[in-house]
Specification:
- The structure is a homodimer.
- Chain A has seven helices and five strands.
- With about 190 residues, chain A is an alpha/beta fold.
- Chain A has a single domain (about 1-155), classed as 2-Layer Sandwich (Nucleotidyltransferase, domain 5), CATH 3.30.420.10.
- In chain A, strand 4 (about 65-70), helix 2 and strand 5 form a beta-alpha-beta unit.
- In chain A, helix 1 (about 40-60) crosses helix 2 (about 75-95), helix 3 (about 105-115) packs across helix 5 and helix 4 packs across helix 5 (about 140-155).
- Mean pLDDT of chain A is about 85; it is low at about 155-194.
- The interface of A and B includes residues 43, 49, 70, 85 and 88 of A.
Chain lengths: ~190, ~190
């Protein structure tokens, strides 16, 4: 499954593409950040984001686009730009018939680190490990976009879907990265609760 | 000058096109509301808005798009959708090289009614009068979009631009609608202050 993760923003919009195999092994396909300057007018900034997302969708042809769910509780001076950018990203995917999934930051953190309250450094560290990268993706927005994509791909095999259950139990702990192990454990716990 | 005014929103997005002559006389070209249901997924809703704005830009070829400036002080449950819709509208105009102007609700109210604190009914009444319509545009979002377009067109002749000053003084009071008269007075006051 190929997922494009997008951490929307006006100043920095993180974009990350991963391929995730049935055994949950994830591979980096592309990562980047689209930056626009606050000195530019809003329409020019949103146009840069619109063109970039189109380019990424055309180049990588993801099966799903995972976008960070925006909360109005954020810093009021940045939240409007984040929401405007996310609207453009979601509409661009919808135009191509690509499904869009929204995930909260805490869902993403929990998926890749095992804790919904992990800090940015911990997320970056786990993304680097999961994707077997030699260097950490920078800036944090790029790592966040990859984390979003990973979280979505792994959620695809969420507790409740029979195939996911079968797959999880068939995996041996040693074949898993630490994050995958945490995730598998979290899944088992969740299954026990339901 | 042809202006497309947009009152962005997810549930109701108001769209209004006016032609404004050099003497400030304004004519209705098109008005409508794009509605999406809260039962639909977000990507489907934003896609409807994206397609509609493209259609309006193609059909009416406005010289400027005037969009309501979104404030995060709005109701938190609706502000994100409003911002997402506005991002799509702004990017759509920017893609076509059409300039985008943002106006606050109070600027718009002041321009069409003479008071920045006018209520929705007063705005609708003045829009109906200014455009010499037989019936008021409904719902309020449609009237708001027209008010935005009018406010922008009239602002084009704002205090400070020499041509505007010449034009305002050359007009006789009897040739003006009540709103235009109020606006001309507001302009004079503003000029005196600066």
């Amino acid at each position: 499954m190929r997922v494009l993760g997008v951490d929307p923003g006006l100043t920095r919009c993180g974009l990350g593409v991963v391929d995730v195999a049935r055994d949950r092994r994830a591979t980096l396909v592309g990562v980047g950040v689209v930056g626009t300057s606050a000195d530019e007018p809003l329409d020019a900034r949103l146009l840069v984001i619109a063109r970039s997302i189109d380019e990424w969708l055309d180049r990588y042809e993801p099966e799903v686009v995972a976008v960070e769910r925006v909360f109005s509780q954020l810093n009021v001076s940045t939240v409007m730009g984040v929401a405007q950018a996310s609207g453009i990203v979601i509409a661009a995917a919808a135009r191509r018939g690509i499904p869009v999934a929204l995930h909260t930051p805490s869902e993403v953190k929990a998926a890749v680190t095992g804790s919904g309250r992990a800090d940015k450094a911990a997320v970056t560290r786990m993304v680097t490990k999961i994707l077997r990268l030699e260097a950490s993706p920078r800036p944090a927005d790029a790592a966040d976009a990859l984390a979003l994509a990973l979280a979505h791909a792994w959620r695809g095999a969420a507790p409740g879907s029979p195939s996911a259950v079968g797959r999880t139990t068939a995996m041996t702990a040693s074949a898993l990265t630490p994050a995958q192990r945490l995730w598998a454990e979290a899944e088992s716990k969740a299954r026990r609760k339901t």
